[in-house]
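Trying the structure run again after the queue cleared.
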Amino acid sequence: MQHTTPAAPAVRETLERLLASETFGRSERARKLLRYLVEREQAGEADRLKGFSIAMDVFGKDGDFDPSTDAVVRVQAGRLRELLQQYFANEGVAEPVRIAIPRGGYVPSYELNAIRLPAEAEAESKPQPATEEAATSAPPGSSEDARNRAHPAALLSVPALSPAAPSLQRHLQFFWLAIALVILMLGVLILRQGSVVLLTGGDTAVETAVATGSIAAPPVETLPQVYIAIKADSDVARRVAASLRAGLSGFDTINFIGRDADSPPDPLTDAASFVFDVLPGPRSGDIMLELQSVATGRVLLSRNLTAGDSANTAIEDQISGILSSALPASGTIYNYIEQSGIQTGLTACLVLNGKYYLDQNAQTHEAAYRCLEDLANREAKSSLVYSELASLHLEAVTDHYPYPADATMEKAMMFAHRAIQMGPTSPYAHRALGYLNSRIGNSEESIRWMRKAYELNPYDLAMAAAYGYGLVFAGRYSEGTPILAHAVDIASAHPTWWDYGLFAGEFMMGDMNKATLASDGLRTTEMKSHYLAARLIGANAAGREKLASRLLQELTTKFPKFAADPRATFVERRYPADLTNRLVEALRAAGLGGAS
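Done. Tokens:
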């Protein structure tokens, strides 16, 4: 486990899954306490997490609270630690981020799984005198070997791309193949007896079977399959299922199977298939939605929709929130696929792409780019490959990432147009083209393409956010800000660019309280200059002098060019003139000497 602080969106995403879990389902106090501790720490207020303030804010105690005689905070914190350990040992064993409350205090800590070299690659790299760090820092034009050692995509174990195994490994594979065949024979016997297939360690059995060749690995561009199973007979259930069906049909990241799931699951052929069960809820009028792995029966997501949630005016928002949490590359299904080792080439690349947008830095960008680039070089047929390459290529141009070294707006536009040609009804392709037009200052074209992306899938909150973002940075703040705010409000977790767009919109609408709240979400492992600037403006407006002073020092030290002339950066990024002027004025008020 790598002790690197995860980005804020990744922490929020884990928190929401954890709060919705069965482990925490029966403890309202634990949920309330955990949300409070994580949100306060993420807002930069870790120093407030003392027993007295927790007692008042979470448990409703008054000023007479005496922690020496009332142990409510200590007892509940102990119970919370137990539930966290239980969750991450069972339901949350595959979570990419771990949340803990270390003993002796109440400030949460986070652990992020490292991206590791496969064992074979590590063994091969040992005789090499050059370190990975040295290879990574090699200048453009270095030897191909040096660039390959630094290749972030090589940090993944992607099916069908591994080198040939040595003789010993072949013997071991033969042994495990025999074990897998025994397991399969037992599975057939269970199925013939009419039992439900729910094998302990079923995910590992699937992975082993693919690795040993007892079943063929799926094609490189295969996407997860999703079904619906309606198990509640009511008008409300049918309304929920209809909305769910409409939403599922618009996502590019899955293959939606329109017919209901009605056949017995096959642990191998259905390894990457999932079903949304529409079930009766615990109370009259409630509907329970459960997302399960078809192969193992493991519940990945569970939501209870009350009668109010299922009303005609509310159901689309509820389904949008659920699907936007489950289906994107950073969501529940792809997280399960990654942790189970059943990725295809395309799903592996999309996971990397999702990780980049949750934590934007040069390393995550290059890993995603190289992976998608490899698929494009092999004449991939999925428009997703080219739409996401277009956006990543543009990021390389605007954020000056080292890879690819020859990034140009023209090449990004070429990828975007190819995505549209291959996926004329793809929301992702339309969004990519809108994003590019925004960056070259073509506001009308940008909004046209973003609006089309949103219309193609109104259930994908990322498309709504992109449309709102495009409106904000076209200077249409009163139109774009409410759309972005609505998307942020519904989503359980979201990328940092949503927060930045919302900050800019609320800032220009004059609501500094909301702008400051949005700026608090702008924390990534490799901070960007404009994110730091937004956080500085928010901290200064909120009167948080200590935080503002630290952010000012960090901005000046890490980004001297920006600090000397922030206006140049905003102009380069094609900000509207009024937004640029207001940001420069606010930075000057916050003490940035170069703001003029």
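DSSP finds 27 helices and seven strands in the chain. Worth checking whether this holds up in the mutant runs.
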